[in-house]
Structures are given as C-alpha cells and as structure tokens.
Amino acid sequence: MSTPDAPTKTISDFESTLSRADAAVASFEQDDRTFIHVLRNFLRRNPTMIPALVLLVSIAAFSIVAPRFFGIGALSTILKQVTVTGFVALAQTLIILTAGIDLSVGAILVVSSLIMGNLAVGGVPVLIAVLIGIATGGAMGLMNGLLVARVKLPPFIVTLGTLSVFTSLKLWYSQSESIRNADIVEKSPGLLWFGQGYNIGGASISYGGITLILLAGLLWYVLNHTAWGRHVHAVGDDPDAAMLSGIHVDRTLISVYAVAGLICGFAAWIAIGRVGSVSPIAFETVNLGSITAVVIGGTSLFGGRGSIVGSVLGAFIVGVFNTGLSLAGVDDYWQMFAAGCLVIIAVAMDQWLRRASQ
Q: Exposed, middle or buried, 331 (CB in 10 Å: 0-12/13-18/19+)?
C-alpha cells in the first residue's frame, strides 16, 4: 500500500531541496584587466592611433637627428613624394579589407598613364584622354575582380599573373619609349595640372596632394556610412557569414577591384603631373610601397579591419622615414632595411591586436 505514495514523497523531497538552493545568478569574473589588456582593446577599437603616434614620434625623432627635417620645405616635399603612393594605397586598402591583395596596381597605373599621354599628345582632348585612361584602369581592375570572384582564384595568384600581363602590355603599347616633358608641355599641358599648386607660408602644396586628402575623406565616408562599405568589411571579416546574411559576396568583390582600378587610373593623371613625363618603367616599386603603407596604417592582411585614414598616415610614415634618413646621411639600402622592419613590426602588431578578441 506504500508504493503509490513513493512518487509523491520523492517530489516533495525535491521541492524542499530546491527551495534551499542558491538563487544567485551565475557570473564570471573578469580576471584579465591588466594595463596591457586594456591597451590592446583600445588600440583594436581605434586602429588609427598607432600610425598617428608613430608618425608624430618619427617627425620628432628626425627633427632632432636632422634639424633641416623639421621645416616647411621638407614637410611639403614629403607630401608631394607620397601623393602617388597614397592614391595607390587607397586602392590597395579597399582590396586588403576584403582579405585580398593586388600586386598589379603599379602596372595598372603605368598603363593608364601611357594611354592618357599618347592620346593627349596625339591630339585627343585632354579630358577625353584622361577619361579613357581612367576607364582602362577600371577595366583592368574589373578583370582582376572577375577572376577572383567568378573563377574563384586566389587574389595573390590572379594579380601576380595580371602583373606580368599588364607589364607586357605597357611595353608593347609604348614600344619601350617615354613621352618627354617638352612634348607634354607643348601639346597637352593639361596633363600636368595636378603637379601645380600654391604656396602657403613657404610650403608648396600641389593640387594632387589636396585631391589625395579629399579622396581619402570620400572613401572614409563611403566605408563607414554606406551599405557598400559595410558589405566590404563583412566580406573581408567572414565571407560565408556575409553570404548567409544576404550580401552578394561576388558582386561586392568585383566592385571593389573595379573601384581600385579606377582609383589607379585616376592616380595615373596625378603621376603625370608629379613627374612631368610618362615612362613605361616608372613607379616599379609602387606596389610594395602601397602594401607597406596599408600594413603600417593598421589594415589587417586578414581582412575586415582597417582604416583609410591609417593608410594615408602609413604613406606619410614611409615618406618621413625615407626623407629623414636621407637628410641624416643614411644610405639607400638602410632605408629599405628600415621600411622592411616597419612592415614586420606592423604585421606583428596586427597579430597581437587580433588576439584581443580571442
């Protein structure tokens, strides 16, 4: 007769035991609140702080080592020197944000400049020649994007191949001949417009440098305040998650490479004004220079995190180091050594910051 009462007794015992249990909500102690932890999270949330501090420290250091460095003339010269690299770095930033890389940006720039120069000197109106050159840059960038997005080839392999293709095209198209400054001045001086400028307090500021700042501001707004910019970051951070959230990953990648090509095409006009002539062998190091500026500027090579402002600051850091070391009497190979060390340190810093969220 006691068997039917067993379940009731068991439930009663359980309820009485449960009433005496601790009702506190589970909590987890934050046992890693060291200064290094806080600093790492702060720098991860504000990636432009690192290149900004490096730039300020570099200017201060070189002003002590080489007193001639801290002058209006030297600083304005740096601005002119980094203009072309800065433009290409902006294009490279868009691509690296998607976890890609473009080794052909320098060849795109040179091909576009050759087309602009030959058409303009040959009698085509400057504006039309420039538009055709920019469109050519966009078409070459579009080719890279289609190969990466549609054919599913790695960006490094694609752009390494198109680098050779575009280099061959520029040598074939130009017949390895340059366009002299005298011919440009005589027949199409409008190509040199961005090399001109005005003086402010003894500093010479070119229209190309001003345009670099304006374009950087425009791209900053687009990446931070438009749907396309959010898509670019999402694709670089996790393409699978981006696709599941409704983002057209392939379309975004293609548009990024095409826009980067257009920027390089426009940079060709800036380059003609900066140098004053057009050569098929010019700007052969701008590829590495742009990647260096982007990495030093805090953009992650793994995609999804970066800053347009940081890339511009990175370009200035490279210019400051080159000019400062030159004024200090340091040989060219040590300048290359310093640039390489900067890249390694920047990548190591990126890895350190990535662990902040792990």
A: exposed
Q: Which alpha helices (H) appear in 328-357, and where do they start and end?
A: 332-354
Return the structure tokens found at 278.
Answer: 């057009």
**Rounded CA gap, 206 and 83, in Å?**
9
- Return the closest-CA partner of residue 141 out of 38, 41, 28, 261: 261
Q: How far apart are CA 216 and CA 222, in angstroms?
A: 10
Query: What span, in angstroms and rounded, lies between the C-alpha atoms of 328 and 334?
Result: 12
Helix axes 249-275, 83-97, angle to 10 degrees: 170
Q: How far is CA 11 from the centre of its chain?
A: 66
Q: What confidence category does residue 28 fall into, taking pLDDT thresholds of 50, 70 and 90?
A: very low
Band (pLDDT 50/70/90 cuts) for residue 150 is very high
State the pTM of this model.
Answer: 0.84
Give the pLDDT confidence of 228-271 residue by residue, as tens digits: 999 999 999 889 998 998 999 999 999 999 999 999 999 999 99
- Could you tell me if 269 and 128 are in contact, meaning their C-beta atoms sit under 8 angstroms apart? no
Q: Which residue has the tokens 């990024």?
A: 256
Q: Counting every residue, how long is the chain?
A: 358
The token pair that represents 328 in the structure block: 């200090």
Instruction: Indicate the burial class of 150 (C-beta count within 10 angstroms; 0-12, 13-18, 19 or more).
Output: exposed
Q: Which residues pair with 179 in a beta bridge?
A: 278
Mind listing the pLDDT tens digit for each residue in 39-65? 667 666 666 777 888 888 888 888 887
Measured between alpha carbons, how far is residue 132 from residues 137, 148, 263, 266 in Å? 9, 24, 13, 10
Give CA–CA dist 134/129, Å, rounded. 9
> Which amino acid type is present at position 103?
L
Amino acid identity of residue 70, one-letter, is F
CA distance 148 to 31: 44
